[in-house]
Amino acid sequence: MVTVGELTSQYDSTTPSIVWRAVRSLVSDVPDYENRPSPSEALRLLEATAGNLGFRELDQRGREERSQRQAFTQRVVMAMFGGAALIGPMLIMTLHPSRNTSLITVSVATFLFALLLAFIASDSAGKDVLGATAAYAAVLVVFVGTSMAPCS
Q1: What pLDDT was estimated at residue 41?
Q2: Among 147, 138, 143, 78, which Cα is nearest to 110's?
Q3: 49: which of 10, 13, 64, 151 is 20 to 30 A away, CA to CA?
Q4: DSSP characters for 31-66?
Q5: How distant, in Å, are the alpha carbons of 65, 80, 130, 140 from that of 122?
Q6: How far apart are CA 94 and CA 58, in angstroms?
Q7: Which pLDDT belongs to residue 23?
Q8: Residue 36: what are its φ and ψ, rounded to 5°?
Q9: In 10 A of CB 22, how many CB atoms?
Q10: Which residues have C-beta within 8 Å of that of residue 83, sequence separation ≥ 6?
Q11: Contact at 8 Å (CB) between 86 and 79?
């Protein structure tokens, strides 16, 4: 069995052929298939010994899991942002029920929503930001219209 230290001491650690040779050696030298490290685990072991090699993760499952975690985190952040963006102005307009307060709150909240959405949703096109902002403003305007209507 060739150790990672022996492989990396003979060659420059960034040489692709030595990296693949070391990964293959780490993976194939484990006789028990169930305990055999995945290519990404073998690369992590190699990087722990030789330093950062600057390679992408080799394991497709690892990339997919990281992508799913990132997508979930992004959805949670957007849900929290959307909820706070609706509840905050509605609380202000309910606690201070005047026409001026409602109009100023809707204007400022819509402007801040559009600005924050432009920064947070960096992968969205301009038309997506415009559509989301219009829908947000519509919800707040409906709330103002129903809360300001005289009760019969």
Answers
A1: 72
A2: 138
A3: 64
A4: -SGGGPPPHHHHHHHHHHHH----PPP--HHHHHHH
A5: 22, 17, 13, 24
A6: 54
A7: 63
A8: -70, 135
A9: 26
A10: none
A11: no
* Residue type present at position 100: N
Could you tell me the CA-to-CA distances from 107 to 112, 114, 140 in Å, in that order? 9, 11, 9
Q: Which amino acid is at 46?
A: L
Whose tokens are 């609380």? That residue is: 91
Query: Which residues make Cβ contacts (< 8 Å) with residue 58, sequence separation at least 6?
Result: 23, 38, 39, 40, 43
Buried (b) or exposed (e) across 129-140, using 16+ Cβ within 10 A? beebbeebbeeb
How far CA 151 is from CA of 15, 143, 146, 147, 148, in Å, comes to 78, 14, 10, 9, 9
Closest CA to 129 of 121, 141, 137: 121
Question: From the first residue on, what is the mean pLDDT of each consecutive set of 10 residues in the chain (152 residues)?
Answer: 51 55 64 64 69 61 83 89 89 88 92 88 84 91 80 55
Is residue 106 a contact partner of residue 144, using CB atoms and an 8 Å limit? yes
Nearest to 142 by CA among 89, 95, 80: 89
